[in-house]
Amino acid sequence: MNLKPLGDRVIVRPKEGEETLPSGIVLPDTAKEKPQEGEVLAAGRGEWHDDELVPLEVEPGDIVIFSKYGGTEITVEGEDVLILSARDLLAVVDKK
Amino acid sequence: MNLKPLGDRVIVRPKEGEETLPSGIVLPDTAKEKPQEGEVLAAGRGEWHDDELVPLEVEPGDIVIFSKYGGTEITVEGEDVLILSARDLLAVVDKK
Amino acid sequence: MNLKPLGDRVIVRPKEGEETLPSGIVLPDTAKEKPQEGEVLAAGRGEWHDDELVPLEVEPGDIVIFSKYGGTEITVEGEDVLILSARDLLAVVDKK
Amino acid sequence: MNLKPLGDRVIVRPKEGEETLPSGIVLPDTAKEKPQEGEVLAAGRGEWHDDELVPLEVEPGDIVIFSKYGGTEITVEGEDVLILSARDLLAVVDKK
Amino acid sequence: MNLKPLGDRVIVRPKEGEETLPSGIVLPDTAKEKPQEGEVLAAGRGEWHDDELVPLEVEPGDIVIFSKYGGTEITVEGEDVLILSARDLLAVVDKK
Amino acid sequence: MNLKPLGDRVIVRPKEGEETLPSGIVLPDTAKEKPQEGEVLAAGRGEWHDDELVPLEVEPGDIVIFSKYGGTEITVEGEDVLILSARDLLAVVDKK
Amino acid sequence: MNLKPLGDRVIVRPKEGEETLPSGIVLPDTAKEKPQEGEVLAAGRGEWHDDELVPLEVEPGDIVIFSKYGGTEITVEGEDVLILSARDLLAVVDKK
Fold first, then answer.
1. Does residue C2 belong to any structural domain of this protein?
2. Distance between CA A13 and CA D13 in Å, rounded?
3. Cys-Cys with C55: which of A35, C32, C46, E33 at CB 3.0–4.6 Å?
4. Which of A50, A72, A76 sits opposite G50 (nearest CB)?
5. Is there an interface between C and G (3+ Cβ pairs < 8 A)?
6. How far apart are CA D56 and CA D42, in angstroms?
């Protein structure tokens, strides 16, 4: 992917709709905050805490659960992706 | 559980409804902030105070009282769980 | 009590209604912010100021005046108690 | 007085109504922010600026002008008093 | 004046109405933020930036332009004055 | 000019209406945030970042583009000028 | 360009409408936050994190995706450009 997120942002390829995902996680369509599962395609350089730049907890290839609220939808090379702040990422699927 | 919460988030398996719980705690259905009891299944790496990352006060296995407001419901391996910020945890049941 | 408040929270056993309390303090039912008197049953580890964790000013056994707004009601071992932030405590009755 | 205010709070005995006070100050009943004159009965340990606890600028016996907004009314030993944040104190009458 | 402002507050004696002032400044009655000219009668000890107390930029005798919004009107020794935060002061007339 | 702005404020002499300015910049009358061009007549001592006072990026004589929102209009020595915060300045025309 | 953005602001020449851009990115007209692609023409000196001034992540010539919300439109030398905060930049197209 030739797009680099800025700041604490990540680019995520979402998996849409309610279904049992390979990870065994079901995300209800009706949830207030619309949780979603997706794959991190690219990650920004980090988030600032005071004057410290702290690298993000996720990296490309991670499968994440995120809150859809606040993300921005764009289409890159034919794929629908989301740019969102790392603050909107809720959890990451452990790599075995 | 193969889900790791990010930042100051925790994953909690809630106990629903008004009943006297084994811990002797009753949580009214009618309460404004909807307190709930549940078990911590996983905990994020901590919360930031200025540029210090401080580990959370709870760990997997803890029984906690939390405010339902703000949590995100998902289903993992057939179980309904909540992802919520550690700021929404009110108290923890002491381990004897 | 087998419940430990988290962060800057305290658990308080409130005294309800308008009456002259043993401490000589009257709390009007009609007050905008609903002040109340109660006894601290348990106190969290403290509050953060920048990256310093500062112990709370109150401890179990203290009689406090607090603002009811924002507290969460639960029932523990048959007793109605409130979990509230130390920021909602207004004053403490001096121990003689 | 056997009540100790917590944090940056003070307990003040207000003087009610529009009148020329001994200090020569008139406080209009119609003012938007309802300024009032009163005597400080007790003062909390201070206010936090970052991780520094700074003692309050007032002490018991001081006559202060304060903004009524935000204070909590209680009755202590037969006297109507207010608990309010030191931020709501506007000015203090100089001691000669 | 026997009133000492607290914190970053100042006491100002305002000049009311639209007129060409001796300083050559006209303040329109219709302005959204209602700028006013007045004389500083007393100044608080300063304003906090983090844990540093910084003295105010104005002192008694200064002629200032201020935003009327947020000030509190009181009458001291027969004079109508305003107590306002130094943040509401916009400019000071240079002393020649 | 005998007015000194306080804090991070600047005094600007605006150029009104939509026209092609000598700098070649056109500012539409219809823009949501109403950008304007003007000349800085005076600048405050700086803006605070934590406990550091940082001098402003502009000085008297600079031609600036600013957001009209939030400024206060006054008339000084027959000229209509604006007092606004340096945060409302968007750009400065390079001096050749 | 003879305009220098102030603070954390950048000047961007936007590409309007929904189309497949040379970079292969499609930005839907209907998106809630109206993402757009454009070229950075000039960049401010940086953004403050506490008392540290941190240079921006982008420089003139960069192709960026940005959120249109909050930008200010002006016309410079016949070109429609936007002045916006670096916080509104979402991602940058990698230079090969």
1. no
2. 62
3. C46
4. A50
5. no
6. 11
Which residues of chain F neighbour E58 with C-beta distances below 8 Å? 6
The residue of chain G nearest to residue F32, with distances taken between CA atoms, is G72
- Cα–Cα distance, C91 to D16 (Å, whole number): 23
Domains identified in chain B, total number? 1
Question: Which tokens is G41 given?
Answer: 């023409």
Q: CB within 8 A of C30, min separation 6: which ones?
A: none
Render pLDDT for C50-77 as a digit per residue (tens, 0 to 9).
999 999 999 999 999 998 777 899 998 8
Handedness of CA A55, A60, A63, A67 (dihedral sign): positive
C32 lies in a domain?
yes
Q: Is A30 exposed, middle or buried (0-12, 13-18, 19+ CB in 10 A)?
A: exposed
B3 lies in some domain: no
The Cβ of residue C96 has, within 10 Å, a number of other Cβ atoms equal to 4
Closest CA to A35 of A82, A92, A89, A75: A89
What one-character DSSP code corresponds to residue B54?
Answer: E
Q: Closest Cα of chain C to D93: distance in Å?
A: 25
Sign of CA pseudo-dihedral G44, G48, G51, G55 = negative
Torsion of CA F25, F27, F33, F36, to 10 degrees: 70
Which one of A72, A83, A84 makes the best mutation probe of the G interface by having the most chain G beta carbons within 10 Å? A72
- In chain A, residues with a C-beta closer than 8 Å to the C-beta of B50 are 49-50
Q: Which residues from B are below 8 Å from A33, CB to CB? A: 72
Which residues does chain E have with pLDDT short of 50? 31-32
Cβ separation B91–C11 shorter than 8 A: yes
Over chain C (96 residues), the average pLDDT of each successive run of 10 is 93 74 60 76 97 97 89 89 95 85
User: Could you tell me the CATH number of the domain that includes residue A43?
Assistant: 2.30.33.40
With an 8 Å Cβ cutoff, is A53 touching chain B?
no
Residue G82 domain-assigned (yes or no): yes
E35: domain range?
9-92
Q: What is the largest CA-CA distance in chain A?
A: 42
Test B31 with C2 for CB contact under 8 angstroms: no
Q: What is the DSSP string of chain E?
A: --EEE-TTEEEEEEE-SS-B-TTSEE--TT-TT-EEEEEEEEE-S-EEETTEEE--S--TT-EEEEE-TT-EEEEETTEEEEEEEGGGEEEEEPP-
H runs (alpha helix) in chain F: none
The ipTM assigned to this model is: 0.84
CA A56: distance to chain centroid?
Answer: 12
For residue E43, the chain D residue with the least C-alpha distance is D91
Alpha carbon A85 to its chain's center: 8
Chain E's closest residue to F45, CA to CA, is E57
Closest residue of chain C to D77, computed from CA coordinates: C24
Q: Among partner residues B9, B11, B51, which is closest to A50 by beta-carbon distance? A: B51
In this structure, the dihedral spanned by the alpha carbons of residues B61, B62, B63 and B66, taken in order and rounded to 10 degrees, is: -120
Interchain contact, E3 vs D58, CB within 8 Å: no
Mean pLDDT, chain D, whole residue set: 86
User: For C44, which residue in chain B has the nearest alpha carbon?
Assistant: B91
Which of B7, B48, B75 minimises the CB distance to A25? B75
Over the stretch G20-75, which tens digit does the pLDDT of each residue have? 555 666 666 554 456 899 999 999 999 999 999 999 999 999 999 998 777 899 99
Q: Check C87 against D7: CB less than 8 A apart.
A: yes
